[in-house]
Prior knowledge:
The chain has 2 domains: 1-37; 47-136, Barwin-like endoglucanases, CATH 2.40.40.10. It is built from 2 helices and 6 strands. It has helices at 3-32, 116-122, and strands at residues 47-55, 75-77, 86-91, 94-102, 110-115, 129-136. A 6-stranded mixed beta barrel has the order 1-5-2-4-3-6. Strand 3 and strand 4 form a beta hairpin. The longest helix has 30 residues, at 3-32. The radius of gyration is 23 Å and the shape is elongated. The protein starts with a helix and ends with a strand. Residues 49-132 form the RlpA-like protein double-psi beta-barrel domain. The chain crosses the membrane at residues 12-36. Its EC number is 4.2.2.-.
Amino acid sequence: xxxxxxxxxxxxxxxxxxxxxxxxxxxxxxxxxxxxxxxxxxxxxxxxxxxxxxxxxxxxxxxxxxxxxxxxxxxxxxxxxxxxxxxxxxxxxxxxxxxxxxxxxxxxxxxxxxxxxxxxxxxxxxxxxxxxxxxxx
Length: 137
C-alpha cells in the first residue's frame, strides 16, 4: 500500500469520525436544550375514565422506563403520562395509587394497564377488564 493511499484513507476516516461526532453532539444538544419535547402530564388528561386491564404474571422483564417488572408492585402502563407519575385508580368503590412505569395499553379502547398487584387491590382480577376512573395526584 503506497503512502499516498494511506494518507487518503486516513483523511476519509477522519472526515467520517468528525461527521459522526458532530451529528451525535447535535442530537444531544437538541434534547438537552428542550427542542425535542416529550408529552407531559399537561398534554395528557389529568383525569380519565375507561377500560383497564392487568398484565404480567412473570417478574423480570424490563418496562419502558427501564425498571424490572414486578407483578406485585403498584404500577401501571399509560400511553403518555411521564414515568413516575402517581395515579389514583378507582374501580367498584375501591381505589389504589399506582406509579406509571411502562407504556401501553396497546389495545384500542383501553386507557390503562395495571400490574397484577394493583388489579388485585381493586378487585379487577376476576373480571380481567373493567371500567375505571383515574386521576393524576
